[in-house]
Amino acid sequence: MTPFERRAREAQTRLADRGDDLLALFPSRNLFYATGFAEEPGERHLFFLLPATGDPVFFVPELYEEQVREASRVDDVRTWADDEDPTERLRAVVGEFDVGRGRVLVDDTMWARFTQDLRDVLPDASFGLASEVLAPLRRRKDDAELDAIRRASRIADRVVDDVRALGSDAVGMTEAELAREIERRLVAAGGDGLSFETIVGSGPNGAKPHHGSGDRIVEAGDPVVLDFGTRVDEYPSDQTRTVVFGGDPSAAFCEVHAVVREAQAAAVAAVEPGARAGDVDAAAREVIEAAGYGDRFIHRTGHGVGLDVHEEPYIVAGGGVELEPGMVFSVEPGVYVPGEFGVRIEDLVVVTDDGCERLNESERGWASPAT
Ligand code: CO
Q1: I need a surface site. Which of 21, 301, 321, 348 has the fewest CB within 10 A?
Q2: pTM (2 decimals)?
């Protein structure tokens, strides 16, 4: 059984246990998770229909049939042609599931027009969200998922070490040039695209946590926030280092960097099964507050990472989610001084049976070898 078949079967068990009748996915991360078929959302009707009991059906445009059969082990693939009315075909296929007044869970990101069509063909059913059954499954990563995230993280580690080694050669480059250089190296190291828009925040731009990259030139002594990731087998990495490529940074920056590094280490040390998400956030926040920068730590400590770069569990103040082995999330405290600089240090961790394992091991200090 492939991991995808196993996940679909687990989803089916949950549907049955909850008394739900049908799961309807469309091109999304959920669809890949449950079938192995990866595709961008499009205007044609394409659904994976998983009933609580019995066999699933892929309802796809004719032009996708071969792709869907190759990617998934789903036998029952029903197609419709471009000159047909997909809604009438859908009505016939869905009719076989005998949902009646039952409950249908639709993909959280399904386009409204497709949800409307499902409502039309299932007029007596009630509707909920696919995440009700899939999010609890997706929270704990299986071996295939961990393997992919590990490989993606290793690529990011290697690239950040190589970029750091540019040292004073990076001085004079624009943020955007540095971002393109990072992206080129990610692909060369085996990554498949980006997890998200690469962040190169130099000097005052580092104080904006989600700054992308722009035409500001990296100067000697500038702190530079580097936050980027790549995908392997659809799974992303996410890592941040704050470095100085050449010259001497300010004493204020050095102090803040040491505080953030200590906070990050404290939060990682707080990760263990049974701890709450809020405990991890508190461990980081206490260090930063004690150093007097509490009001400059302006985001949560971390987020779950899986097929989505931001997913459950969220490592947020007061977060009640209980950590379980197999959960993967970022630990990324930061301190942002508007108009001056920002510091963020981020690693992914996976919760183990007795603590956690860091998935990123690249150097966390700010110095570059050639500084
Ligand atoms: Co992150």
Answers
A1: 321
A2: 0.93
